[in-house]
Amino acid sequence: MTNRMGLAAAALAAALALAGCSKTVDQRGNLPTDDKLAEVQTGVSTKDDVTRLLGTPSSTGTFDEKTWYYISKRTEQFAFLTPELLDQQVVAITFDENGTVTDVKRHGMDDRREVTPVARTTPAAGKELSFIEQLIGNVGKFNGGNAGSPGGGSTSLPGQVPGGY
Description:
- By secondary structure, this protein is an alpha+beta fold.
- It has a domain at 22-111.
- It is 24% helix and 24% strand.
- It contains four helices and five strands, in the order H-E-H-H-E-E-E-E-H.
- Strands 1, 2, 3, 4 and 5 form a five-stranded antiparallel β-sheet that branches.
- The longest helix has 19 residues, at 2-20.
- The protein is flat.
- The termini are far apart.
- The model has no long low-confidence stretch (mean pLDDT 81).
């Protein structure tokens, strides 16, 4: 009986381990459907119309808010491995000064480009001190006589004579 229970527990543990290694597909972002995009008309639709039809954008232009971006990405991941990009879509909607749509563009997987971030840091003002310079610089900054501590310092308030009332 105990042999069967041990075998059942091992089979259950193996099934749980295998279930944890299954592929997961993750969909992120807001990608409008083709039907909704067809309702956005250049020269006619306004920002309010686009918000009503498509919802709020995923992002807006960095230097001006005349371009709205609806970004969607679908990835697949197996266990703990790096996710694989299955699909990526970006819809860019550009507005004029009056808030009327001037252009609608869809960018897909073929339009993407790899971007390599620059690994630079901005130097901070001041001097970097070594460990030894930090130790030597702290010599004499701390004394043993703190006010109110046992065995050192004065317990009188400013303007009072020590030991006086």
